[in-house]
Amino acid sequence: MLRSTMSTAAEFGGYRAQHPQEVSIFNRAMASGTKRFAEAVLDVCDFGRFHHVVDVGGGDGIFLAKILAAHPAIRGTLFGQPHVIRHSAVRLKSFEASDRCQSVEGNFFVSVPEGADAYLLKWISHDWDDTASIDILRSCRRAMKPTSRLLAVEHIIGPPNTGPEGKLIRDDGHERGRERTRDEFATLFAEAGFRLISETPTATAVGLLEGALNNI
Prior knowledge:
This protein is of the alpha/beta class. Helices cover 40% and strands 21% of the residues.
């Protein structure tokens, strides 16, 4: 299954690499939403407790830049596919906190940078089915210290008749993507070796899920 998910990711990444104009439009739309969601997450999460944050699959780095700008003592690592990171590295130079941020190329199905205090995943599980999502979470787990935290920003599906947020969203490029309830996220976390320790709503449609290693 890992080979299958890596193949799907490669195909999607290949399309993006071959269609720069379409990707530019897509990235601008994502960046606009990301700024708003980043500010909402910063309102409810104390990133100041971390020294080093890895943004896994962090796109153009806007979310991570917002975190670093709000917390001058934090270092950041933007991690993603090579063609995305090459584009992002140029943009990161324009951010005030670029001197505290490095860009690292890689595949989150294989490995992610080791030893950070927090691993941020914004709309990552949203793009994948359960098996692929667990593979990504396990990559993060292998890289984490015992005290590290997993921070997932996702649309969290509520009970019936509680609002449309997340329920009407279609995936942005992966046919296997889906939205999930809190309990479904808790199951994903547990399968990957985490325990879900908190779920925090924000002023937007997304919520923040925090996980810790389940043997701590």
